[in-house]
Sequence to fold (181 residues):
Amino acid sequence: MVQWRKIQESDLEMIMNWRMRPDITRVMFTDPVLTLDGQREWFRRIQTDPTQKHWITMVHDKPVGIASLVGIDYQNLCCKSGGYIAERQDRDFGTVIAQETGLLTAAFDILKLNRIQAEVMSNNQRVAKMLVLNGYTQEGVLRKAVYKNGEYFDVIVCSMLKEEWAAGKTRFKYNKLEIEL
Fold:
């Protein structure tokens, strides 16, 4: 069973270690060098920032990743999504789809937004394909938008609208995700 719970201060070291792992940063826009003090400051900021929501993804009560909605715009009813399954053994299709379905549920059913956008580096074709399979529309490509380790990467931009989510919920069977707000 996949569940989401709010990030707790006790998660910060785990998140920091995940986020700096080469297998994670390889497909992320940045390669941060994080500190526990910096993580605590980030945690303090997100506690009072209504434009972002972050959760720990749990599989059978074990933390396996992080899921986020950021840039939440309550006037235009849109946001961007992000996240990753950190534990390689948990990166199975079911968990990845459950994580993405959770982001869609949070954005459309809970926050009542109209649009969610996902941006994926071109070296992460597996996730780009999963987004389209899950009902997203690929809107375009930002050419050479990320420069990392001496190399440029394109960014694939995908989105889903509220009415597409509503239609997709009847097409795709999915297990309801428990989301702690």
In short: The two ends are 18 Å apart (CA to CA). The longest strand covers residues 62-73. Residues 2-117+162-179 form a domain with the Aminopeptidase fold (CATH 3.40.630.30).
